[in-house]
Amino acid sequence: MPSNVIVGLQWGDEGKGKITDLLSKNSDYVIRYQGGNNSGHSIHIKNCSFILHLVPSGIIYPHVQCIIGPGVVIDPKSLMIEFKKLESIGIDISQIFISKRAHITMPYHGVLDQYKEWSLGKQSIGTTHCGVGPTYEDKVSRTGIRMLDLLDKNKFYNKLKYNVEFKNLIITKIYKQSPVSFKSIYDEYIEYAKYFENRVIDSVSTIHQAFQKKKKILFEGAQALLLDIDYGTYPYVTTSSTTTGGACVGSGVPPSFLENFIGISKAYCTRVGNGPFPTEILDSHVLEMIRKKGNEYGSTTNRPRRCGWLDLIALKYSCMINGITHLIITKLDVLSGLDFIQICIHYKMNEKFIYYFPANIDLEKNKLKCIFIKLPGWKQNISHINDYDQLPKNCKNYIKFIESYLNLKCFLISVGSERDQNIIKDQSSFIKIFS
Ligand code: GDP
Ligand code: IMO
Ligand code: MG
């Protein structure tokens, strides 16, 4: 059975939630493998809309087993709220499982995330303040608390004691703020332990057994390549591996288990938070139009998203690192109505043309400029179209241009936020993914 990996190819919010939900119909398992509640994956089905932060986006289908994998960091408070919201709208959450190995976000992580951002001043990352970065810092420094530690009262007590004492030194001495309380955190988290206990599993053996039984597995990435800790626009990135390779690391499977590498790109670009964004649109008229039509506001923090033209240099780099075999373009409907559409095809850095995405992407220091081409736009609303041939000619030309630049076929185009607002452009790829 082929297994599919879905990743974002830009700076997040490409529509991974919508596409994961769509592909979950024919999946037995959906596994989230990195990130934390910093992500917000939206799903719209008729009159029902919700945003998932930690729960895999396969949850709407009752036959799908959803696993929050070892590479994810879990804020139990946020996860409990998510569970209760799903239950309140009648969604069965009995098939959600959590890896024993997943690290836990503690209240001091959120606090440290905020204080660090304040201390950085103008150089702040613009994080979600969810504490995801500090949780991964503790994981790497080997003092983190894992799900299995939470279930062992003594171990949890000792690990928490060490961490609270250490973090309080930083909070009070460096940031000159009030300490956090060991007792209140301990009492709160012991309640979470009771709430989640029956769902905590050894996900590695569960996933490997599923492979042996030829079950269909879908790995759902969070964030996106340009926010990756190693390959993104460092330091303005998140703190996990957002690549297709991250699916192996974050769920404990070998690369040979993965078959179809599905990359999602919007028909333009957005970014929330700070950091370089070469194709950012500063013209307020076009910016407002895209933001309004695309509802470009952060799903986790509600911050207005920065918007820009499609950046093919960045997209090519992203497809290359992820080894994308199947491309999906979302939000094409948002560009309807523009007289022309720009696409970035080269960068100029320090007066020299470059055709690759540079490691030192500092727009001002390296005098980085985008070279755009202009393609004619289309006026018609395309959000009701399901057949590729029905798309306006200029719209098809836009897609063709992207495909030929990337040397990659786009197999699915999304033209609205609803589950059925899609155009299957390449039926054989679609069947391959679904078979
Ligand atoms: P994710 O983090 O990648 O899952 O993306 P988000 O959910 O944060 O943001 C994507 C937003 O675009 C959500 O509000 C989706 O409902 C919406 N969306 C997804 N695909 C389309 C599309 O093709 N057209 C439009 N107009 N909206 C879309
Ligand atoms: P999904 O999965 C968009 C951004 C933050 C900030 C940077 C670091 O919905 O695509 P962090 O809290 O991770 O330390 O913040 O990363 N960021 C996202 N932007 N979509 C996301 O997730 C994001 N998760 C983190 O805005 O710039
Ligand atoms: Mg999102």
Supply database-style keywords.
Adenylosuccinate Synthetase, Chain A, domain 1; binds magnesium ion; Adenylosuccinate Synthetase, subunit A, domain 2; ten-stranded mixed β-sheet; binds 6-O-phosphoryl inosine monophosphate; alpha/beta; four-stranded mixed β-sheet; Adenylosuccinate Synthetase, Chain A, domain 3; binds guanosine-5'-diphosphate; 3 domains; 435 residues
User: What's the count of strands?
Assistant: 20
Shape: globular
- Provide the CATH top-level class of the largest domain: Alpha Beta
**Radius of gyration from CA coordinates:** 22 Å
- Derived from helix and strand composition plus strand pairing, the structural class reads alpha/beta
Going by CATH, the architecture of the largest domain would be: Alpha-Beta Complex
Task: Tell me what you see in this structure.
With 435 residues, this protein is α/β, with parallel strands linked by helices. It has three domains: 3-100 and 199-260, Adenylosuccinate Synthetase, subunit A, domain 1 (Adenylosuccinate Synthetase, Chain A, domain 1), CATH 3.40.440.10; 104-196, Adenylosuccinate Synthetase, subunit A, domain 2; 265-434, Alpha-Beta Complex (Adenylosuccinate Synthetase, Chain A, domain 3). The protein has helices spanning 16-24, 76-88, 107-120, 132-140, 147-150, 153-174, 182-196, 203-212, 244-251, 284-293, 312-322, 393-406, 427-434; strands at 4-8, 29-32, 41-45, 48-52, 65-68, 73-74, 96-99, 103-104, 200-201, 217-220, 260-266, 269-271, 306-308, 310-311, 326-330, 340-349, 352-354, 368-376, 410-414, 422-424. Strands 9-7-5-2-10-1-11-15-19-20 form a ten-stranded mixed beta sheet, with helices on both faces. Strands 14, 16, 17 and 18 form a four-stranded mixed beta sheet that branches. A two-stranded antiparallel ribbon has the order 3-4. Helix 3 packs parallel to helix 6 (153-174). The longest helix has 22 residues, at 153-174. The protein is globular and about 65 Å long. The N and C termini lie close together (8 Å). The model has no long low-confidence stretch (mean pLDDT 96). Residues 8, 11-13, 38-41, 125-128, 130, 132-133, 222-224, 227, 238-239, 272-273, 299 line the site of 6-O-phosphoryl inosine monophosphate (IMO).
